[in-house]
TrEMBL record:
The lineage of its organism: Bacteria, Pseudomonadati, Pseudomonadota, Gammaproteobacteria, Lysobacterales. One of its GO terms (molecular function) is tRNA N(6)-L-threonylcarbamoyladenine synthase activity. Residues 28-311 form the Gcp-like domain. Fe cation binds at H115, H119, D304. This is tRNA N6-adenosine threonylcarbamoyltransferase.
């Protein structure tokens, strides 16, 4: 089955074709992401109305480009998957409207996909995918969750953030230190030049039992350290490194706890923060020590993309699921 995937939940227009007959990493026939970063940069964050309008402008040309790259025409598509939520309602409606209209015109099924399920399943698009059960760490700009995946489609929430998501903490901390939007990757790049241990921040909620997270206090600690410092470039990098180490350690401690609690030996990591190099290194080292396994999508498929939506949609369409022709989106939606 060749499924066209469409992602428009926030500030990235993502389109892809996943071919289940090929499967694995090669099953991804083509994917393209158009990022609206430059559009929102001057406002320091995503402006929902501008996001929707830009999806309107970019989506159809991107569908055309992706099909061309895959060497396919619209008539080759067997199904269309789109992000139905959670996300910005106007942005979601653009993707849902185009997906439903395309499916209607091509007389193929369409299915709305949960954005976080897309992230969660993205590591399974790589070669030699792990089989359930496993623990999933979902770390994006809007979510930080630990999920027990007993089977594909069967998810138990083990823990989640009580305030800021990990990506949100990266972005807000970066903004406080004057880094341009979107701050997460910039802060991570800056941390590469910092010296570990110069600034030592707490690992929130790790000294008591439980699998929930809280990153908002950490952000305040960093602000105080930044305000009380000489604010040179070198200090900025040291603070970035101290912050990144605190987030990475905290996530790693809770992942180990979740693996202990479930008895599972495989961890998968997904969402934008999963692209963080230090997090990947730390979780790989931990897995080696435990004799377990950790799987990530390639960095480009950690952040928002159409491939994960095509893949998650393909699994559901192959299982016979699809909605009616209504253009239905769910801005707030538990997985
Ligand atoms: O999954 P995603 O693309 O969008 C959401 O669904 O939220 O995640 C975006 C988040 C942003 O907060 C961004 O700052 C963060 O992921 N991010 C990173 C890195 N790359 C993206 N955070 C830390 N290190 C990175 N390398
Ligand atoms: Zn996302």
């Amino acid at each position: 089955m060749k499924v066209l995937g469409i992602e428009t939940s926030c500030d990235e227009t993502g389109v892809a074709v996943y071919d289940t007959a090929i499967g694995g990493a090669d099953g991804l026939r083509a994917h393209a992401v158009y990022s609206q970063i430059a559009l929102h940069a001057e406002y320091g964050g995503v402006v929902p109305e501008l996001a929707s309008r830009d999806h309107v402008r970019k989506l159809l040309p991107l569908v055309r480009q992706t099909l061309d790259e895959a060497g396919l025409s619209t008539g080759d598509i067997d199904g269309v998957a789109y992000t139905a939520g959670p996300g910005l309602v106007g942005a979601l409606l653009v993707g849902a409207g185009v997906a439903r209209a395309l499916a209607w015109g091509l007389d193929v099924p369409a299915i709305g996909v949960h954005h976080m399920e897309g992230h969660l399943l993205a590591p399974l698009m790589e070669d030699d995918p792990p089989a359930a059960p496993f623990v999933a760490l979902l770390v994006s700009g809007g979510h930080t969750q630990l999920v027990a995946v007993d089977a594909i489609g069967s998810y138990r929430l083990l823990g989640e953030t009580l305030d800021d998501a990990a990506g949100e903490a990266f972005d807000k901390t970066a903004k406080m230190m004057g880094l341009p939007y979107p701050g997460g990757p910039q802060l991570a790049a800056l941390a590469e030049h910092g010296t570990p241990g110069v600034f030592k921040f707490p690992r929130p909620m790790t000294t008591r039992p439980g699998l929930d997270f809280s990153f908002s206090g950490l952000k305040t600690q960093v602000l105080l350290a930044w305000q009380g410092s000489d604010q040179t470039d070198a200090t900025k990098a040291d603070i970035a490194r101290g912050f990144e180490d605190a987030v990475v350690d905290t996530l790693a401690i809770k992942c180990a706890r979740a693996l202990d609690a479930t008895g599972f030996d495989t961890l998968i990591v997904a969402g934008g923060v999963g692209a963080n190099t230090r997090l990947r290194e730390k979780l790989r080292a931990d897995a080696k020590r435990r004799g377990g396994r950790v799987c990530f999508p390639r960095p480009a498929l950690c952040t928002d993309n159409g491939a994960m939506i095509a893949f998650a949609g393909a699994l559901r369409l192959e299982a016979g699921q699809h909605g009616d022709a209504a253009v239905h989106v769910v801005p707030r939606w538990d997985m």
